[in-house]
Amino acid sequence: MIRNYTVALVQMDTQNDKGENVRKACAFIDEAAARGAKLICFPEVMNLIGRNVGEGGGREPIPGYTTEHLCEKAKEHGVYIQGGSVTEALEGEKRSANTSVLISPQGTILASYRKMHMFDITLADGTPFRESDRVKPGDTIVTAETELGVFGLSVCYDVRFPELYRLMALRGAQVIFVPASFTMPTGKDHWEVLLRARAIENGCYIVAAGQIGTKPAYAAYGNSLVADPWGTVVARARDEEGLVFAEIDLDYLERVRRQIPSLENRRTDCYEILQK
After folding, report:
1. Disulfide-capable partner of 221 in 73, 148, 182, 250 (CB 3.0 to 4.6 Å)?
2. Which residue in 161, 148, 158 sits closest to 115, CA to CA?
3. How many CA atoms lie within 13 A of 181 on its CB side?
């Protein structure tokens, strides 16, 4: 296992031309690999936001247009790519899935995860907003063992559900991805504190690549960052599209987990009644 390596986060301003978005993503991969990154991570819906005016269509199967490009780049540079998420077409289903993929240096899809938690609320004026009307939630927790450590996959709104992250940590996750497209109002108050909390609770690295820029329905918060197992923000993107780099140190992670053994000190004898 490689114990120390560089991760690159791609902060994107994804718009409504899928072909252009994917070409831009590939250029970022080229640059990140040239600068020594072994792992390259993208934000939520990295390939398309809005009605597509370019090539590649709208929702797509996996493998499909976007993941095939990412797989080619992973193989070309011999790097791992966490593909943020894409809008996945589901056979026989009107709804899509918000799906994250992990791609190996050989250019194969190692794991895929469908966002589990849907933002379903009733607004103050009584208007319902149900993400689950458009997006089918996944039902599987996903971790993947790699030569860079054990990875855990999540997407955006998932970060508000700490039990998901604890379960990934109990499966051995050392680096957990949170590709996102947080809005400006929630981002400025909740983004960093939630990410740091998930890192501290589980003694893991949280790698969170985000969208930035003005979208059709909102302004995206950006602030892509990496929080280490102590909860320290060790890298943060500027207020613009681009790359940010951080070092992942699994030896440091193990030292933190020994210093604060919260995974070992759980009271599972008391939790069972809560689970019911």
Report:
1. 182
2. 158
3. 23
Query: 0.90 exceeded by the pTM?
Result: yes
The residues, ordered by sequence, that sit 6+ positions from 271 with a Cβ below 8 Å of its Cβ are none
Going by their DSSP bridges, the two strands 205-208 and 175-177 should be labelled as: parallel
∠ CA(176), CA(178), CA(182), 5° rounding? 160
Q: Are 20 and 153 in contact (CB under 8 A)?
A: no
Rounded mean pLDDT of 12-20? 98
How would residue 163 be classed by pLDDT, with cut points 50, 70 and 90?
very high
Q: Which residues are catalytic?
A: 44, 115, 156
How far, in Å, CA of 53 to CA of 33, rounded? 29
Q: Which long-range contacts (CB under 8 A, 24 or more apart) does 224-227 make?
A: 224/9, 224/10, 224/11, 224/43, 225/9, 225/192, 225/195, 226/7, 226/9, 227/195, 227/196, 227/198, 227/199
State how far the Cα of 187 lies from the Cα of 43, in Å rounded to an integer: 14
CATH number assigned to the domain covering 4-118+126-275: 3.60.110.10
Looking at the chain, the number of H-run helices and the number of E-run strands are: 7, 17
Residue 189, CA distances (Å) to 20, 55, 169, 182 in order? 32, 37, 25, 11
Q: Which helix (H) or strand (E) holds 128?
A: strand 128-130
Domain locations along the chain? 4-118+126-275
Q: Tell the residue number behind the tokens 């933190």, with chain if given.
A: 256
94, 119, 133, 184, 215 from 128: Cα distances, Å: 20, 11, 11, 21, 21
pLDDT interval class at 275 (50, 70, 90): low
